[in-house]
Specification:
Layout: H1 7-23, H2 26-35, H3 39-47, H4 66-78, H5 84-92, H6 100-107, E1 112-114, E2 129-130, E3 136-144, E4 151-158, E5 161-168, E6 174-179, E7 188-196, E8 198-200, H7 205-241, E9 243-244, E10 247-248, H8 253-281, H9 287-313, H10 324-336, H11 341-354
Parallel strand pairs: 1-4
Antiparallel strand pairs: 2-3, 3-7, 4-5, 5-8, 6-7, 9-10
């Protein structure tokens, strides 16, 4: 099966890719990473109206759905652009249903993050305590965009069941410690809540966590698709330039086979990711299984293809000056971001057992 985008979706993809080419060429991305500050990029993303694409107009977005979010994730990865704030926000926004003021503030740059460890499937919330006044205490390590979030959506157990709460990150009861990742295009932070004031959210926690898990799986898979596609382009370009024994290395059969395998992975990933995105958008009964398959398959292939791209580049691929490492590290991180392929495969097995 080959997934076909609509004309409008293709136009959006071209427009966003062109914008990223102007705003976030890799030498500028490197400057942001060196300065350890991506706020200038995220500020432009908001100011130029891209942050609301893929979110319904009824909640203050620009329209579109999960397919458009996946297109955004793919293009952000192709540009190696900082994406933690955006990803953390778009998967968390459904928790703010009915709160137009908060959605508008979030899409205006007051980023919102889900308070779960970045390496777990989001439907497995951490253990936090809630006192009689409704204040929340506890620690959550490695929260995606935890260092820059203005608010946290917090899943916590109260009276024996999980509920959702909103916590202002600026209050004195919240402390955070940023952690550095090898993939410097993403950020995480350890968050500690000490009797933090929390506002209950009138949203079903079970439905939200199921939905956020599916959205996170699809968008991380789309990110891996974008990174892998760019690594393939870099590898092919280099194989035409590098000569050995008087001929381009791209003429060697082993190089051709490695590049062909990467191409097959990219084309398969594109169909899997966008089918899963459409399934999640339409709330298909099997949408979580479709998202799980995309996350497990595409991020595993992305990790393998990152190694292949590095091999095809040879020694230059290991250098800081070459752009390959930006995508290599991103693909490696995606394998574990919001759940490893093994955990998602377990979810698939459990789901099929219940059918």
């Amino acid at each position: 099966m080959q997934w076909k985008l609509s004309d409008e979706q293709q136009d959006y993809q071209r427009a966003f890719r062109g914008w990223l080419g102007n705003v976030a060429p890799t030498h500028v991305v490197r400057d942001w990473l060196s300065a350890d500050d991506a706020s200038s990029f995220t500020g432009r993303l908001v100011a130029d109206g891209w942050s609301g694409v893929g979110l319904a107009e009824s909640v203050g977005g620009q329209g579109g759905g999960v397919v458009e979010l996946a297109l955004t994730a793919e293009e952000l990865a192709r540009a190696a652009a900082p994406a933690a704030d955006w990803l953390a926000t778009v998967i968390s926004v459904p928790a703010l249903a009915g709160r137009a003021d908060l959605v508008a503030a979030t899409l205006g740059g007051e980023w919102t993050a889900l308070l779960v460890p970045a390496e777990v499937i989001p439907n497995m919330p951490p253990s936090l305590t809630i006192d009689r006044s409704g204040a929340i205490s506890g620690s959550v390590p490695r929260v995606l965009a935890g260092d820059t979030a203005r608010r946290f959506v917090v899943p916590a157990r109260a009276v024996g069941e999980t509920a959702l709460y909103l916590v202002d990150a600026r209050q004195s009861g919240v402390s955070r410690r940023r952690r550095r990742l090898l993939d410097r295009t993403r950020t995480v932070a350890d968050i500690r809540l000490d009797a933090a004031v929390a506002e209950p959210l009138d949203v079903s926690a079970a439905e939200f966590l199921r939905g956020v898990s599916a959205r996170a799986a699809v968008l991380v898979a789309a990110d891996s698709l974008g990174a892998t596609a760019r690594m393939l382009e870099l590898a092919v370009e280099y194989s035409k330039q590098r000569h050995q024994f008087g001929v381009p290395i791209g003429s060697f059969q082993a190089v051709k086979h490695a590049a062909a395998t990467m191409l097959v992975d990219v084309e398969a990933a594109r169909s899997v990711v966008y089918f899963a995105a459409a399934s999640v958008e339409s709330d298909d009964p099997d949408s979580l299984l479709h998202a799980a398959a995309a996350k497990a398959q595409v991020t595993s292939a992305g990790r393998r293809d990152a190694d292949s791209a590095l091999t095809l580049h040879g020694a230059i691929g290991y250098t800081w000056e070459h752009d390959l490492h930006l995508y290599y590290k991103r693909a490696k991180t995606n394998e574990w971001l919001f759940g490893s392929p093994g955990r998602w495969n377990d979810l698939i097995a459990d789901g099929l057992t219940l059918v």
